[in-house]
Amino acid sequence: MKKQTQISKGLLLFLFFFPVVLFAQETITGKVINENTGEGVSFINVVEDGTSNGTASDIDGNFSITVNSLPVTLRVFSIGFTTKLVTVENAGAITVQVAESLEALDEIVVTGLGSSIKRANLANAVSTVSSEELVGNTGQTTVDGALYGKVTGVNITASSGAPGGGTALRLRGISSINGNNQPLFIVDGVYINNVEIPSGLRFASGANRGNEENAGNRLADIDPNDIENIEILKGASAAAIYGTRANAGVVIITTKKGKGGKTKIRFSQDTGINVIQNRLGLRPWTATSVFDAFFTPNPDDPAAEARSRAAAEAEVAAFNNAIQNGGLIDYEDEIYGNVGFISETKLSASGGNDKTRFYIGGSYRDEEGIIQKTGFDRFSIRSNIDHKISDIFDVSLSSNYVRSNSSRSFTGNENEGGLSFGYTLAFTRPWNNLFPDADGNYPNNPNYPGNPIFVRDQAKNEDSNNRFIQGVKFTTKLLTKENDRVKFVVNGGIDYLANETYVYVPETHQAQVGNQEGFVAEGRNNFTQFNLLAFAVWDHTAFDGNLNLTTQGGVSYLEQQANLVNSRGSNLFGGQTSVDQSVNQVIDQTRSNQKDFGYFAQVEGNYKDQIIGTLGYRLDKSTLNGDVNKFYGFPKASLAINVANFDFWQFEPINQLKIRTAYGETGSSAAFGSAFTSLNPNNIGGNGGLGVGTRGDRDIEPETSAEFEVGLDLGILDSRISFEASYYNRKVSDLILSRNVPASSGFTTETTNLADLVNQGLELAVRGDVYRSDNFFWNTGIQFYFNRSEVTRLDVPAFAQPGAGFGTGLGTFFIEEGQPVTQIVGNIDPDGDGPLEASLKQVGNVEPDFQMAFNNQFTLFKQIDVSFLLQWKQGGENLNLSRFLTDLGQTSPDLETPEGQARLGTAANAERFVEDAGYVRLREASIYYRFPSNIIEGLFGEVVEGIKLGVSGRNLFTITDYSSYDPEVSVNGGAGLSSGIEVTPFPSSQQFYFHLNVNF
């Protein structure tokens, strides 16, 4: 039962009689309360319906309004509450109960660091995802993975299919070539760290860079079940108030809060399984194909040809023997065929009174991967407390402790380390038995320097994380008058992350023998991030309540500290697993400290919900810039006109017609240390010293984005149908690149501002309640969006982007003026007979032609909920280097076909391995049954309020022409130009769940 508090005050009614005119006035007093919490609702509008006569409630919800006569109808409304019409017929105190709004147009959206606005009045395209949309249909491992298909203008790429993620979000295209393309994440006012942490695995596998180590990003530590809603500021026009951290957009996450009234307890248990989403299959080997794979004719050297023939005949004999003794071994199934068990338990309690509200939640998720001994587990406990100290002071605390662990095994790129499963499977023959003997000894792989069964069983690639996120918000109401309300807010937070990584390869591993003789790497990595905001907000009402002005201004401070230590050892003593038990030891340490400081101010004006405008400005300085004391300015401006709110609008079927436009600028500072010249250790003649490498640029400036956006929003039939259209043009200037410098300078490279690019795109969304009745409800939504990019300035010759491909021979991202920043370029073999010509060609573009999503929710007979989400990605190419490897190893499943044979007869150029990566995917589907209340009451009395059972799935089917595991791929992690290049990834999985939800 909802708690209601009624405070009665003396109601004085004065009737004035004047001898000249008969004129009567009545004064109505009362209180507006929140029907859910019983609290008074402050600053809510109370207007005599049909007139401009009105007032607003005070801090406690009390109001007083004078009207000409009774009876009268009062319109009570405010942001965040449904509008209520109240007829007052007689004198006396009244109490008006209002409900929190659930309608899309009344949804509250953040517009500044201290203000919000109704979606109906928004001048930017801000996407929102509710808790129900995020996790209401099926189980979700990570927040970013849960956003697939739910937000326009967002391109999501999985850099790993391992449990615990590895996901890259791109909001409205590429924001940086060398730098960060992940958005800024803010949880309850705390700027959180989404870092990818290298483990040192590359020193054993031979991979080239730390971003190829299959690491997850640390957004995986945030439990999606704790989230109330997510707001995504996709472009600079919306994110400008966040300054130099917002160049790639901003994702604002609000977690669940307590509500006044009876304490509610919610319990849920999910159980499920992980299975591989798509298998490549086994090549249909025959004795003839085995012989052809191993025999190389050589008429010029009969002896060599004889040796090749003998080797081929030996393989045929082994093949025939395997066929006669149980058949071929499907090593793909042995490695990727594990059925991983998933279990997630969630328990929360929320409640409160008129002074204190609380939410406490805990969860534990344990997810096994499709590779044995891989998995991810996360224990999370959260406490959110909101306390009203007095009528003047409020405080909110948001606390979250997380312990997460993952085991990711070995996938991705390497250079013959004998560890990556994809590499090994590309060359492993299914007639060779690689399982251990009775004594536990693993045989060597005769075709590749690694036994995948040994690696799966004996080697380790693990990480663990202890994380504490604390936010605090202190609000002081400095002034509370009828037309002026001023508050001062201090909002701060800390995100502390202690990460440990561990990689171990036994000395008995095939590739280690005679080389490293065993490898171990241990990482101890600590990250501390502080942020503090202090600002004042002044709400002013003028012109009889028709004009509302919200002015805010304040300061912002952010500090990031990082200390990464990686200890590695090789030549291990037999059976030892720690660095101190190795002969050759190396320690790397990287420390950084970054500080940002800024001022911001913003003014929002709202005239009768008809014309809404915003002007804002942000000034930031950073220790990452060349001049640490120089402030950079980031303006914003927006205007929205709600045509349907004007008095002349008479077309009732359209209740909203809004035209909007916005402009804004954001920035992104250089990487740590870019302003300084690096000194590298050198040993010359046995004497230690320092040498120079990359020259710093003391004048380096932030990369900046300037975005212009226009849009149209429609609401039809009381917004049962809504339509949103947005076009944007985002220019990214002063991109930071590295260039070669003359050797006479004493340096090799220099990093500085050298390029510009532009992103243009269109976003469309339609949502509607198609049908409503007592026994059937259908809600649907369709999204459509695309982005186009072009490099518009390049002060250096066109070049292959380092770390974003494998050279022009196999294909790479290529930065070239006048071309998309997402193009893939390679040398070509126009005759198909090799060798490659020294001419470059754009062989692909990873950016999709467009993306669409189709989301549906059904409710049948008030008890059955059905939902599904389809996602369509049209176009966009991948460079499928996994197939390059299987072709090289002659294990591709289609090599017996004419297409496969044709590939073997052509040179290994990039054009040969570029494939269309479009798809249609059933991303989510679910069906739930809610037990009727009379059955629950009969079984449990008043103890249980609701029970819901359901089944669901993720990635249930995919229609695609792409020939490898998943068209959503990335070999390079989440940073930089990371999508569209596949090299033997951890395959994606399908998930199937059973759900039990109980509310007490």
Structural topology:
Layout (H helix, E strand, L loop, with lengths): L25 E9 L10 E4 L5 E3 L5 E6 L4 E7 L2 E8 L5 E5 L9 E3 L5 E3 L7 E5 H5 L7 H4 L7 E5 L8 E5 L12 E4 L2 E2 L10 H4 L21 E7 L2 H4 L10 E6 L5 E16 L10 H8 L7 H23 L6 H6 L3 E13 L3 E13 L6 E14 L4 E15 L13 H7 L24 H7 L1 E21 L3 E22 L13 E24 L4 E26 L9 E26 L3 E12 L9 E11 L11 E15 L10 E6 L2 E6 L1 E2 L7 E14 L4 E20 L8 E24 L3 E19 L4 E7 L1 H4 L1 E4 L7 E6 L8 E9 L4 E11 L3 E11 L2 E4 H8 L9 H7 L5 H4 E3 L2 E12 L2 H8 L5 E15 L20 E2 L6 E11 L1
Parallel strand pairs: 1-7, 13-16, 32-35, 43-47
Antiparallel strand pairs: 1-4, 2-3, 2-5, 5-6, 8-9, 10-15, 11-12, 13-14, 15-16, 17-18, 17-48, 18-19, 19-20, 20-21, 21-22, 22-23, 23-24, 24-25, 25-26, 26-27, 27-28, 28-29, 29-33, 30-31, 33-34, 34-35, 35-36, 36-41, 37-38, 38-39, 39-40, 41-42, 42-45, 43-44, 45-46, 46-48
Helix pairs in contact: 5-6, 8-11
Report the end-to-end length measured between terminal Cα atoms.
13 Å
Helix content: under 10%
Biggest sheet architecture? 22 strands, antiparallel, barrel
CATH architecture of the largest domain: Beta Barrel
* Rg, nearest Å: 32 Å
Structural class of the helix and strand makeup?
Answer: mainly beta
What proportion strand? over 45%
Number of strands: 48
* CATH class (first level) name of the largest domain: Mainly Beta
Mean pLDDT: 88
**Mind telling me the CATH superfamily name of the largest domain?**
TonB-dependent receptor, beta-barrel domain
Query: What is the CATH topology assignment of the largest domain?
Result: Maltoporin, Chain A
Question: What oligomeric state do these chains adopt?
Answer: single chain
Number of helices: 14
Number of domains: 3
